[in-house]
Amino acid sequence: MPRLPATIAALALAVLLGGCHSAKALLPPNLRPPSENTGDALKLARLQLMQASPCCSSFADFSYRSMLPWQPQKFVLGSGSMVANLNGTQSYFLAFRLPTDAKLPYDIAVKSELSGRWLHASYLFAPTIVLLDEGFQPIRSEDIGLCEHMGWSDESSGAFGSFKIDNKQARYLLVYSSAEQQAGKTYWEQSPASISTSSAASLQMNSAGSFSIPHGPDGTLWVGKMNKTYGNALANAICKKAAKGDGLLNTLRTALPLPWSGDNGKPNHHSSP
User: Signal peptide location in the record (predicted)?
Assistant: First the structure.
């Protein structure tokens, strides 16, 4: 009978030791250190793209049967997607015909999602948009600059951009990623106070800091006519690192001079009557 407590203690110790080895497996995925490496993932994605056989090399080769979505719609570009070769650069692409009855001008919204769950192990697809006339001749081409916004939902979180349609000759739209875009980066800044704890987007974040997210050849892209959610996100998005100032107190002192201060921020010394 006296040996029973010792047996129980031994069993408890074994359970605790076993728990130490399995603790890592019990951690939620967003709390585990990243196992993927951005460089390795990018190399693999680029190799996969280069090994694909392109279907199109001129603007007239594409099929424009799909109508531009009336609001942003999700597209996954990557393995299994068709590949184009434009100006010597291979890229996955999307092709749309534009509504002929739409009132000009109007904006097209784009949003790119991070490829991974951790910022320093992620990349994103940066789009280039080409506007074409009915003869498939380019009217305008633009590498879309992306700006980061972390909202309270997945819909309002990501890297946002826009493209204006203001030419009545415009009939078709091609979305791909140019060589310059694929070699570029997007500034990314986030704060724990600006993200939702319940959205999937928040699982991709670190606690704080700023990063330059490299552009990759594949990824998830949302494209369609601009709506209110995307417009608000873009209006409040961060496109580059803010210029370093002199501090909030000094800014307020300059903008709102105190009653006893002169115009130049220096105290007024009034002589006694």
Answer: 1-25
